[in-house]
Amino acid sequence: MISIAFICSIMLGAVQPLSIAVLGAFLKKLQVAAENNENILDATVGQILIFAYLGAFITFAAYTANTLWVISGENQARRIRQLYVHAIIRQDMAWFDKAGEGSLNTRLTVDTQMIQEGISEKFGLYVTSIAQCFVGFCASFAIGWRLAIVMLAPMPLIVGVSIISGSLTTKYTLKTQNSYAEAGSIAEQVFSGVRTVYSYSLQGRFSDLYNLKLDKAMQTGIKRGFVSSIGLGSSMFILFATYSLSFWYGAKLVFDGVIGAAFVLMVFFCMIMGAMSITQIPPSLAVISAARGAAFKIFMTIERVPDIDSDSTEGSKPHKVIGNLEFRNVQFTYPTRPDVPILKSLNLKIRSGQTVAFVGPSGSGKSTSIQLIQRFYDPLGGQVFLDGQDLKSYNVAWLRSQIGVVSQEPVLFNMSIFQNLLMGYSREVPKEEVIDACKQANCHSFISELPQGYNTLVGEHGGMLSGGQKQRIAIARAIIKNPSILLLDEATSALDTQSERLVQKALDAASANRTTIIIAHRLSTICNADLIVVMQHGDLIEQGTHNQLLSLGGVYSELVAKQQIETSRAEDAVEDDDKDDIIVHSNISELNNEYHSNKDIDVQFKRSQSMRLSKFNTATSVDAFEMKRLKEKGIKEASKQQSAPVSRVIRMMRPEWHLMAAGVCGSAIAGAVFPCFALVFSFTISAITFHGKEASSPFQGTNLYSFIFLVIGIAAFFGFAAQTFFFELSGERFTKRFRGEIFQTLMRQDIGFYDSPDNSLGTLTSKLAIDAKNVNEMVTKSWGDITQIITTGITGFAIAFSQSWLLTLVVLCITPFIMGSTAYEARINRGFEDKSKKANEQSGEVAGEAIKEIRTVVALNKQAYFEDKYYKATEYPHTLARRKAWTSSIGFGLQQGIVLFTYAVAFYTGIRLMSEGKIDFTNMFGTTMTIITTAQVIGRASVFTSIFAKAKYSAIAAFEIIDRVPSIDPELEGIEPHSSQISGDIAFENITFRYPARPDISIFNGDFNFTGKAGHTIALVGPSGCGKSTTIGMLQRWYDPISGTVRLDESNVNKYSVGNLRSHMALVGQEPVLFDMTIGENIRFGVDSNKSVTQDMVEDACRAANIHKFIISLPLGYDTRVGDKGSQLSGGQKQRISIARALIRKPRVLLLDEATSALDSESEKLVQTAIDNILEEGGRTTITIAHRLSTIQRADLICVIKGGRVVEQGTHWELLKLNGVYNSLVRQQSLNAN
């Protein structure tokens, strides 16, 4: 296939210059026949037919070459993608630690696309260009070397201008993109931490930061526009100056009798074709070089054999595993941090059937031990044994099939619950067995209540389910696997007490009769373990049962004391064993919603051609992506019905009107250049062919025409330069303003807007980046093109009709084909490129899911499953690309051959009219050249239509955001009392509330009431989803209640201006949000921008937050950058910095939402100390939400929320006496010795 394509491409390149020889022969015969008064039609008809034959041959060769290049490129690229996905999923964890999943996904979508472009039609164009260049130059030197040398002289100038302007444009483009990327990262930080931004009213500061980056981008963008406009203008001028020189010299050679007139034309055209093909080589070469670079990286991965190879068939596979484990002198450091020892010399024996718990602070090596058992890594020193044999002696895939894992962040894939459960096992599992496992894992009852039961899609990352539900499904998956060894890594750490109890029951059942290793920070979950191992800094420091370790009075008993809840004053209480799922119902109606909203899409989906994807029962997750694709299609269809808001964009661009007017004038000049060139060209050919004597004065005949070429060159310089520069300038200015406006509008929206799945972080950042750019192109690119096309059309047809209206009408019959082929090729190519890129990205999401959750995929031994699923997902883009091969090649073939067909028709008609004396040669040649040039320029208009269509969708989307009126508008006025006037009383009265994103799930039904006195600490406890965090959201006015009143002091919170209300409060959330700047700047963000903050104030806040010593121990102290999302700091450090940020605000109301739940015991102790200091200091109202009850036992008021209302309230001791819900929660978390 490639050989045939290669031969066709060479022939296509070689035949183009040879067709010029036919034109030369035609002119020669015409000249001879005219001089001898012969019948000119008889003399030239043979040559005219050759044009037609050549046209047919070129069309066929071009079509065949293009089709075969596209098909062969697509087939190879699909194979490469498949091999690459296989190679990635096969690698060991050490490789993944260094690779970074984002870069792997990018390589899979972007790099393979680059390879495909480099081995497809672009490579064909490269071959054609080289052949055309070689034949063109050889032919011109063979026909008339003198003229060829003169024409070559200005070539270095053109090349030099191209290189200089190209490199400068690239330099400024990179700078512009970097500035936009910096602006994008600012926007990303705002969207990902939007609640923090709103709490501290940081919109103005981020808007200023964003505009600063946009301004930088605009300045470099303007420089880029200037450089490219001068580059384009200069190239045009040099080109026309070359024409001027070559025709003047060619005419001289003809008049001196050195060369015939027809040969001048042949040398000129061959040379121009050779030169034009040189300009086409660099773009193609750039694509091929990029493909080679991409291929190098990809093939490095494909050829890499990992140290721990799950593909390997070597290693023993015993029939039975007993489950005895031993760590013997194990030493380990992570490959990415070789200087940080994780395990120093671990020695531990675990007997078959034992439940062993690992405890200790973060970073002590607990999770590492589990990963060594799974052979994600191998120890650097020492050995790990299973049943007396070194783990390395077992087959890797077999070993992992014997191990079940449930981790802290349970991973579910974007498919149905049933399919997620089956991921645990490789054979077919009867449905009864699956249901039995779910009953054991305590999740059968909530699954049965879902709209589609076990066939419910769980959404991306299992997002449609709560943490506890996901965790229990993961446990059921492990039970179905029936492993000999069960590994539980923090399996309940992120759950509330209610969910934790259900999950813990499931775990206890699952760990019976098998070796189980548990890692836990909540010590209440491991009291009953057969052996508890305490680790610290990579060493095993204590081991024994719960009671033995308590009696030792060492590290373990200290950890217990930190988490202990005082119950000694309470009478013994019977544990209230609430039945299963209080939490279940909140998610069920959401899934119902999802089910019904997907039903319409599903109907469409079933009808769609892509139905073949769902024939495979494993393709449900592809269906999830398919639904997403159809949803996007639906939105696009709806946009098609709306008209493009051009007038609104023009009104917005009012400050740039004068620049756009200058750009339009430049476009008009640029549009007239080529038709005028065609006319003067025909006059020149006529003068040297039929008026074979030199002009008597410098401004007559060929001298005059050569001078006119120079004038056209000057006009081209100003026209093209003005068009490019003024539109680029106005575009850059408008984009800066428009992006800034969209960003500000987004920061005005209510939190409900961000809760909608349609407004995810990725969607909003790409909207900012892409929509503003596209809307800018609606005017800057389109207007220049439209003006140029209109001017070209008017000038071209005016010239053609003035030369010969009859011949013009005949040639116009072919014009639709010229325009159509140019348009069709550009349109189809552009359209398919976009479509297949998008389709490849979507199939990449399937692989992306496997790469992102590689540890789970590897632990489940499901590599082959995901490879197979990815192969099926690439079916749609593969079909698209093959369709593109057959269809877009028609346009390409016609485009290559149509000029020769036009010559045949025009010359035949022209010769007939000449022989009848109706026109002369100048009229005929002028008309033909002008119409061909005009039609080709107009044909390129289709590129403008696709730009316009994109811009239209973007404009509609952007204006939808700009016009959206938020339900809680931060710009509305309200009362603004000074901080000193606020005492801090809080009241919730008869609250009814539902989240805007889930309107049919009621959080509060009008029964929610509670009052908090100024200066008190109020703790809210209760199961997940009961509305604890919602109260903070309403106090901060992220949301307003549907009915009822939230008060701060005596006033309804909606009476305050939003900024003032939030200025009296400070929030510390479960996930601390820090921004990518210095520690000092992050803390200063706590104070409103209009107040000054001294360094002493910052340090005082940090001392109170227990973090000052740590900060000054850093090399840069308070000037240390915290990294993206605070990545350079641990969870506890981030949490204490966010507490300092809250304290420097000196709030009247402090809001603590789960401020210590995600921390290990060591970090929790530090953070809790900071919080206790604040609470003791008093003087402010504090609302704290906690699952760990040991952290809130000293609160002035504890409110227990259940079923949308406060069911119990009082102090810790009062609630224990009630012997109700709170007492039951305390008992479940109790750590007393048995």
UniProtKB/TrEMBL annotation:
TM region positions: 48-71, 123-143, 149-168, 226-251, 257-278, 657-684, 704-727, 805-824
Location of this chain's protein in the cell: Membrane
Highest taxon listed in the record's lineage: Eukaryota
Membrane topology value: Multi-pass membrane protein
Gene3D superfamilies in the cross-refs: ABC transporter type 1, transmembrane domain, P-loop containing nucleotide triphosphate hydrolases
The ABC transporter domain, residue ranges: 325-562, 986-1228
Keywords linked to the UniProt accession: ATP-binding, Hydrolase, Membrane, Nucleotide-binding, Transmembrane, Transmembrane helix
InterPro entries in alphabetical order: AAA+_ATPase, ABC1_TM_dom, ABC1_TM_sf, ABC_transporter-like_ATP-bd, ABC_transporter-like_CS, P-loop_NTPase, Type_1_exporter
GO MF assignments: hydrolase activity
Family annotation (SUPFAM superfamilies): ABC transporter transmembrane region, P-loop containing nucleoside triphosphate hydrolases
Domain ABC transmembrane type-1: 4-290, 661-950
Keyword Hydrolase: yes
Chief localization: membrane
Family: Belongs to the ABC transporter superfamily. ABCB family. Multidrug resistance exporter (TC 3.A.1.201) subfamily.
Official protein name in the record: P-loop containing nucleoside triphosphate hydrolase protein
Organism: Phycomyces blakesleeanus
